[in-house]
Amino acid sequence: MTTHNEEPRWLSDEEQRTWRAYLHATTLLEDHLDRQLQRDAKMPHIYYGLLVQLSQAPRRRLRMTELARNVKITRSRLSHAVARLEQHGWVRREDCASDKRGQNAILTDEGVAVLERSAPGHVAAVRQAMFDRLTPEQQQSLGEIMKIIAEGLQPNEVGADLPWLR
């Protein structure tokens, strides 16, 4: 972070090219995956991610706050998304037994079925858009780079001002 007295550290030409390529690729990738899921499963990519999180949780259930943290969205946006998933019968909510203020989101059998039907097409779209274009070495490097970036952007201290904690 710069103060008012310091000159900003502008991106070099190479850094600018890398940054723009990253933005371009991630925008196209997210759009590609969202369109595939809308076409094949009638759901946006974010809903698919919620179903996956719940499918991998013990007893197919997570506290709403933990689900928001896992998918990196605000609790308000999560609440809206879960309401839509409930309308489809893919998820249901129930009060948390250990905390009367909390709620759990639970993946229903119908939600499992829609996930099982949509997963093969989604995985094929991910593979075609990303992994089939990279060598094994590039895949490993990309994974390492993304892990470093994510770790630097997600503070672990109590009280961190992150949208999914609000």
Secondary structure elements and pairings:
Layout: H1 13-41, H2 45-56, E1 61-63, H3 64-71, H4 75-88, E2 91-95, E3 103-107, H5 109-129, H6 136-153
Antiparallel strand pairs: 1-3, 2-3
Helix pairs in contact: 1-5
Can you give a write-up of this model?
With 166 residues, the chain is mainly α. The chain is built from 6 helices and 3 strands. It has helices spanning 13-41, 45-56, 64-71, 75-88, 109-129, 136-153, and strands at residues 61-63, 91-95, 103-107. α1 (13-41) crosses α5. It is globular, with a radius of gyration of 19 Å. The mean pLDDT is 91.
Task: Give me a quick take on this structure.
With 166 residues, the protein is mainly alpha-helical.
Task: Give the N-to-C terminal Cα separation.
Answer: 24 Å
Mean pLDDT: 91
Order of helices and strands: HHEHHEEHH
- Which ranges are low-confidence, i.e. pLDDT below 50, for 5 or more consecutive residues? none
Instruction: Give the overall shape, derived from the CA principal axes.
Output: globular
Beta content comes to 5-15%
The spatial strand order of the largest sheet comes to 1-3-2
In total, how many beta strands?
3
User: Helix share of residues?
Assistant: 55-70%
User: What integer value in Å does the Rg equal?
Assistant: 19 Å
- Individual helix count: 6
Output the structural class: mainly alpha
User: Quick one: biggest sheet?
Assistant: 3 strands, antiparallel
